[in-house]
Fold this sequence. Notes:
Chain A has about 280 residues and is α/β, with parallel strands linked by helices. Chain A contains ten helices and ten strands. Classes of the chains: A alpha/beta (about 280), B mainly alpha (about 130).
Amino acid sequence: MARITAGIGASHVPLIGRAIDTQDTQSEYWKPLFDGFDFTKKWIAEEQPDVIFLVYNDHATAFSLDMVPTFAIGCAEEFAPADEGFGPRPVPMVEGAPDLAWHVAQSVIQQDFDLAIVNKMDVDHGLTVPLSLMYGQPKKWPVKVIPFAVNVVVYPTPSGRRCYNLGKAIRNAVDSFDEDLNVQIWGTGGMSHQLQGPRAGLINQEWDKRFLDRLADKPEELADIAHVEYIRETGSEGIEMVMWLVMRGALGDNVTELHRHYHVPASNTAVGHIILESQN
Amino acid sequence: MALEKPYKDVPGTIIFDSEMARKGYHLNQFCMSLMKAENRVRFKADEHAYLSEWPVSEEQRQAVLDRNYNAMLALGGNIYFLAKIFSSDGKSFQYAAALMTGMSEEDYKAMMVSGGRSPDGNRYIRENK
């Protein structure tokens, strides 16, 4: 049987990808950020997950205003790193896990979450930066990936509660897949940041840390946070944290926090990182 | 019944909702076209001519030519779409963010390194006079 064994939360700031791609991770500016991922790199090398269910958002890359799916699951054999305006990042192709992806799509839709099924999609920094943070610069990613895109760009975006409950449905779906697979779920984006307007640069360390404090044991409280609180307290782009709730929902009731890291800033953003192990 | 928009009283922030997405549709789709290298070249060669191919409003056109990002946001631009413009200019998110706040890039960067903009005094329009 397939099982979701652990979840990772991590920011996906594009400039982090650039620091990795240009070998700049040990500079004064970047070292404190990357040091917080040393533990994770060792841990994941031992865990050797077969598939990452990677929850992220597209940043007007694969989805323009032509189509804005609220939840989209990538069912393709592979996904190319996108050209976001500077040429694609120099990272390997992302290998999909179509059998599991289609199984999850069927199961989750039958649990009343209406997913868009995507068979062709380039993946942007939202997906590739977390892979680089955990795996560095391999010639080939040592894991298969199911890209799962959440709309957090065009309002209304899904609520935290909806995302949390979707995570539970994803867990049910993976549990019912026959192949013996070690699956991790990653929730990416956040933490506090605002990229637009005169209020750009907003960071709320206290709020972010309270979010991290409650993620393992009080996810119900986090699921109740309204959009406007994310906007007001964590900046307009802090809404990305609803994607961490998909991850948390997919880990079951009992989880153990294994590792945590928080660093300000990466460019305009407060970087959060957490590893949660499912105990169910 | 009108849709609830409880975020209207957050200062210095425009939420990209249905109203803004409709207003900015052509502006944002123009931005998306800059994802293609050949379009970037044509745009940079003659911005007026390139923009005239898009049914954007006169105000939107002028805001693009002026690189006035706050104006583009107010006219329905979304920051991830507008990013295609400053990326075409070889500029970073931090450059654009500094510009929108009215700070120099150096001062903005220093603010971020020292912990960013505090939410205190920045939660409600009424406290941000």
